[in-house]
């Protein structure tokens, strides 16, 4: 059985409070995009985990797909499987790629082995793996708060626009991003700002990670400027970075960008 975990972008991100458990409360809008990995599971006599595509840093035993499998195995009688993950979603990009893999893996195992898990139960498993992970169970645009794992439905549809995402040769770890940020109550709630017409979003809808990440990584700051100059109605770093997206009214020629950037169009 095969699944295609997709990435997300954050449209706005306010860090509102530093919690006592080492995490932060935030407000964000998660929007699914079409940049995808491929994940295949087949039943087998022995456990095996293989990857291809972009190299994943860290110990393969700690891959979120395996962590998800080990967690499910504690509660269900599951057979050995072979997992193949083809990695295409950039890592350290603020695109939630690892979280997407884990959530889609749980949905795939539920489907393949007929576990009959509800969305709520799958989201509960996801929350144990990472703050971003639960979003990918329902995988639809939402306003999120708490650790980024409590959701409210919102009306938002960007399908009339051209979304472009650029990933520079810069890697920002999520932990690094949170270390440099100061929590504060935003002047206007993102839940209200997101209702404004898209042409009014620029400078009102912000990402609280941007000030320090753009300062420490001038390549990301330069990219954001370039997308603006190319006519983006709105552009923002996604999550903790390093990727930056632009929302354009028309298709845009980005051949002027430096060749070492990864560019995804019509995401
Ligand atoms: C930056 C975002 O992508 C925005 O959507 C997410 O908040 C990150 O979520 P994630 O990658 O799933 O994060 P996790 O793997 O759960 O946590 C990594 C580290 O980020 C910090 N962290 C994460 C989420 C959160 N709400 N507050 C935090 O302070 C913690 O130091 C944590 O140890
Ligand atoms: N399936 C996986 N895909 C990618 N990274 C994984 C995976 N499993 C575990 N990881 C670990 O998670 C780290 C970062 O993952 P991810 O791509 O989600 O980060 P990100 O781009 O910063 O996204 P975000 O901050 O939005 O969650 C990697 O460095 C890797 O060690």
From TrEMBL:
- The UniProt record lists the GHMP kinase C-terminal domain at 200-253
**Pathways per UniProt:** Isoprenoid biosynthesis; isopentenyl diphosphate biosynthesis via DXP pathway; isopentenyl diphosphate from 1-deoxy-D-xylulose 5-phosphate: step 3/6
Q: Which GO terms describe its molecular function?
A: 4-(cytidine 5'-diphospho)-2-C-methyl-D-erythritol kinase activity
Where ATP binds, per the record, is at: 90-100
The reaction(s) annotated as catalysed by this protein in its Swiss-Prot or TrEMBL entry are: 4-CDP-2-C-methyl-D-erythritol + ATP = 4-CDP-2-C-methyl-D-erythritol 2-phosphate + ADP + H(+)
Q: Which residues form a coiled coil?
A: none
Q: For this UniProt entry, which residues form the secretion signal?
A: none
* Taxonomy, superkingdom: Bacteria
What are the positions of the active site?
A: 8, 132
Keyword vocabulary terms for this entry: ATP-binding, Isoprene biosynthesis, Kinase, Nucleotide-binding, Transferase
What Pfam families is this protein classified in?
Answer: GHMP_kinases_C, GHMP_kinases_N
Q: Which InterPro entries match?
A: GHMP_kinase_C_dom (IPR013750), GHMP_kinase_C_sf (IPR036554), GHMP_kinase_N_dom (IPR006204), IspE (IPR004424), Ribosomal_Su5_D2-typ_SF (IPR020568), Ribsml_uS5_D2-typ_fold_subgr (IPR014721)
What EC number(s) does this enzyme carry? 2.7.1.148
Question: SUPFAM superfamilies, alphabetically?
Answer: GHMP Kinase, C-terminal domain, Ribosomal protein S5 domain 2-like
Q: Does the keyword Nucleotide-binding apply?
A: yes
Domain GHMP kinase N-terminal: from-to ranges: 63-137
Q: Belongs to which family?
A: Belongs to the GHMP kinase family. IspE subfamily.
Chain's role:
Catalyzes the phosphorylation of the position 2 hydroxy group of 4-diphosphocytidyl-2C-methyl-D-erythritol.
**Name of the protein in question:** 4-diphosphocytidyl-2-C-methyl-D-erythritol kinase
Gene that specifies this protein: ispE
């Amino acid at each position: 059985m095969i699944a295609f975990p997709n990435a997300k972008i954050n449209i706005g991100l306010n860090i509102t409070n530093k919690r006592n458990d080492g995490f932060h409360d935030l407000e964000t809008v998660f929007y699914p995009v079409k940049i995808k990995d491929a994940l295949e599971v087949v039943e087998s006599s022995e456990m095996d985990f293989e990857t291809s595509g972009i190299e994943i840093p860290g110990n393969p035993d700690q891959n979120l797909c395996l962590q998800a499998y080990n967690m499910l195995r504690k509660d269900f009688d599951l057979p050995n499987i072979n997992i193949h993950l083809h990695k295409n979603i950039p890592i350290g990009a603020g695109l939630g790629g690892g979280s997407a893999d884990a959530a889609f893996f749980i949905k795939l195992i539920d489907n393949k082995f007929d576990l009959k898990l509800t969305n709520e139960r799958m989201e509960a498993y996801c929350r144990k793996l990472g703050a971003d992970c639960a979003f990918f169970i329902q995988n639809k645009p939402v306003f999120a708060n708490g650790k980024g794992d409590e959701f409210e439905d919102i009306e938002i549809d960007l399908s009339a626009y051209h979304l472009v995402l650029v990933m520079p040769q810069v890697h920002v770890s999520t932990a690094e991003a949170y270390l440099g940020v100061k929590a504060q109550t935003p002047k206007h709630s993102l839940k209200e700002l997101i209702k404004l017409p898209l042409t009014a979003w620029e400078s009102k809808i912000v990402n609280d990670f941007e000030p320090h990440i753009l300062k420490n990584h001038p390549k990301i700051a330069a990219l954001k400027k370039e997308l603006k100059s190319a006519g983006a109605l709105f552009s923002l770093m996604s999550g903790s970075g390093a990727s930056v997206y632009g929302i354009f009214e028309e298709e845009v020629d980005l051949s002027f960008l430096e060749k070492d950037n990864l560019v995804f169009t019509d995401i």
